[in-house]
Amino acid sequence: AKSGQFFFYSLDGKYMIKTMTNSESKFLRRIMPHYFRHCAMNPNTLVTKFLGMYRVKLYHLRRNVKFVVMKSVYDTDKNLDQLFDLKGSTTGRDAKPGDAVKKDNDVRRVLPDGAFMVDPSLRERLRCQVEKDCEWLKSMKIMDYSMLVGVHNISQRSSKSKSNSQLSSSRPSSGDGDDLSNSSVGNASNATLDRFLDVDDDDSYLEGAIYRGGSERKMRPPLDTSSLASDLKSSDYEDESVQEGKLESEARLEKAIEDMYWPFQQFYDIHGLRRMKPIKQSLIAEKKREDGAGQTCAETDDRQPLIRSVFGNNESGRSESILLFEKPLSDRKDGGFMMDTSRTELPMKLSVPGAPHSVDYCDGKIFYMGIIDILQQFNIRKRGEARYRRLGGRGWQAASCVHPTIYADRFLRFFDEYTNPGDLGIIKEEDDSIGKEGESKLSERSSALKLKSE
């Protein structure tokens, strides 16, 4: 990393390990109760998920190495065609030739055509969550964080492979034993081909979500238990026993989920995926009846002091608590956001890196977003750097090192630019470049907008 720290990804890409300095370690431990409270009250937060912080003693080097384990923003099996690290500033935010990760000015050059367009209702929820995250980061005096964006281009061959698989399944067999479409070898090759062509089927979405089935979006059919009940209707006693057994098994499943994911068990299922629907009220009532006195297990066991230390007692007058349920922002298992193609002509043209005269096509995009690098506090050193830049004259607001309040406002304003540039009236520069003159104009415009809002 640019800061001199090392980071590694796990083999499956779900987790990331990053070394940290002593100041970052102390700062993380200091804000941990506030961080926990923010994640509990905002299950859809885009702030990076810390899973653990460790220290390794290297006796032969006489030093300690501290590192933190985080959940990766790119927890997906999709191939990421573009990567972006966005802060909202302009000074020094140009990617070097050959860099895989693009930066702010690279995004500004391709707006509005290269915007990360999502469904308007989803964008409204996403912006609301980014605003909450920025408010929390501002309250913690944190700055210099980034929005990490990964883009997956949905290959045009995916739709073709679906149609080909449907044709092959409906094709009659010749009956001579040489038809590979009905053989195990043919099925294996088709499965490998479908996986290679990146078919996005209903298995890519959460249980109970709305997914793309062919050309239209259909609701995932619920589990049909009517046939099972009809087969067991020999007596009313058997029906009641089946229902009680089913309820008991679901209660044991919820208990296992609570043991694994407490205190966020109401947001996740047994596989660690987000719930699209809240827990059944019958299971909640059964749980309260078993625990007694109308209290849940989390209110009676030894974990309650942790909740009290974070949220406070009821006598303190705080209304903050862990939400009972909140629908996830993404209905996909990998947390990606589907591109809004309602105002886009498909297939979309794409430029091929390294081949300026070649053109590729895609049927849309999937965006993966997350806020990273949240351990940089606006300390004395950063205050001195910001003061020095401010004394230097114009253009200080275009730098990354600014006050957390200015940083958060600029971060949110830039989020509006690259997610919905049409409503902001962004005009593309004729020369498609951002020079010193453009930076000064941008800083003057941001200052005018801020004075106008005040």
Largest sheet: 6 strands, mixed
Overall 3D form: globular
- Count the strands? 12
Oligomer: single chain
Structural class: alpha+beta
Report how far apart the termini are: 38 Å
The overall pLDDT average reads 75
The unreliable regions are: 161-197, 213-223, 293-300, 314-319, 424-442, 444-454
Strand content: 15-25%
Radius of gyration: 26 Å
Order of helices and strands: EEHEEEEHHEHHEEHHHHHEEEHHHH
Continuous helix count: 14
**Proportion of helical residues:** 25-40%
Features:
about 450 residues, alpha+beta, 12 strands, about 40% helix, about 15% strand
How would you describe this protein?
- With 454 residues, the chain is α+β, with helices and mostly antiparallel strands.
- The chain contains 14 helices and 12 strands.
- It is globular, with a radius of gyration of 26 Å.
- The protein starts with 6 loop residues before the first strand and ends with a helix.
